[in-house]
Amino acid sequence: MVKTVVGDEAQLKAAEDRLFQSGVSAEVGLVIGNLSANSDRGFVYYLIPTPPTDGGGPACSLKREVSGNFGKDGKKGSKGAKPASEAPASLVIDADWVAEHARQVSRMLLGGMSVAGIYLWASEASFKATSPVVLAQAVKGVAQAAPFHDSEFGERLLIHVSYSPRRWSCRICTVSAGSLHPCDFKMSKLIASLQAFKCTYNFDIRLPIYQDGTLRVTLKDIIYKGITNLSKDLQCAKFLINGHMVTEDLQLLSKSTHDVEFLVPFNKTMSSGDYNCGISSYKEFSSEEMAGLVSFNGSVVAFAYLAPREPFLQAISDLKCDITSTLRSRLEMIADEAEEGALSTNAGAEKPIHQLTLDELRKPCSVTFPRRVLVPWLDGLFICDYLQASETSEDIKDHCKEMMAMEAPIEVSTVVDLETTPSDMIARSFWHVAHEHLPSPSPAVECRKQHPTKAVQTARSQTSNFYFLLAILVLVSALVVGWAIGVFGPVNTPS
Q1: Ramachandran angles phi, psi of 270, nearest 5°
Q2: What is the pairing mode between strands 244-245 and 365-368?
Q3: Residue 114, SS3 per DSSP
Q4: Do residues 314 and 306 make contact, with C-beta atoms less than 8 angstroms apart?
Q5: Is-above-0.85 flag for pTM?
């Protein structure tokens, strides 16, 4: 359980000044930090205000519940009653909108950073007048929209920034129970002490799909399963830091970014192709029973930030989580955009690619994942955003301003684009791979037969030339021998 929360003094004081200058009486937003089940300390790096709703209204406001005078005995008009105008107003939070904001922001955070909870800007009286159930429900919505990689860890932060009186307080929310508990909160120089870890991870996952009477599986389900298997591979991986095998007493004192390389054992898990349409019981299949093939490959550039006095193994764990979480985020983005596109098309339009099942595929299809780029954020720290194939770095400006409340203009030249090759998701048609449905070889086999490689073509050409020259040599020899016999006659050997 988290007992102490440490916040970055410079960033939180700047957020407090912004709130005082804004003049608003209530505000809700996200707490960006790091919580871990392996540590009793939590970290807070930044506060991001939730933008206005689609209707233009605030995500948090004040509301007075009472209309009349009530006494201590609860009866209207009784002695000792307080006027309604003096009763403190309670907070009204649009929990769904805050949760959606958390979902979007969580995709933009690198390893070691997450949506750790929410903050509320309100007077002490309004905060106390708000039901704890309302507060806990808002925190729970954020936890469900932006879950931690360790789903069993169910704690989040609720930070109250009070302007009357002016002070900070922090509570731990146990999501499952909906309970709030106070904890120690202090500020320190935190961001300047963070250490950065970087990893480029290449993967090539082939997922053969076998038919066992169950082919109503979507492409999204298959890829999600492949990412899950990739995560299992990473859990077993050895690693190098700055080119050296690490030891338990490794001291990382350098301020520069540490390069990490993962060494994944061969044939450790099922990522190379044991996904049989979601059937829980595994059995052996032959190649004739293959119903399709999904090829998922690419290169992921992962980052993670390590808080001071935290073990370096935590950074390695955060790097692994960053690899799998960014792939899942991109898969969800494709699904979201496909559904939005389907809504704008005619009713008779085809299904979005992620909703297609194997038995609906009639030809090979290919989907390109969005490309991840790094955007400068706070004092040398980065966040990330995603670009489709048709987008450029200019397209990230509005997104960062809306989601991350970045007021300073983003210089396109400072955006780091490290993933030059986007990840691809390719599915070969069920009808073109399954043997029993093919009167002729599959397109891939036909392609290889019709278009051999250059080396094979060269070998065949050399062989053909040799036989052609040999035939000419035999023909010339026969002509010479025939001419000699015709001129000199048969040669008689002495007896």
Answers
A1: -95, 15
A2: unpaired
A3: strand
A4: yes
A5: no
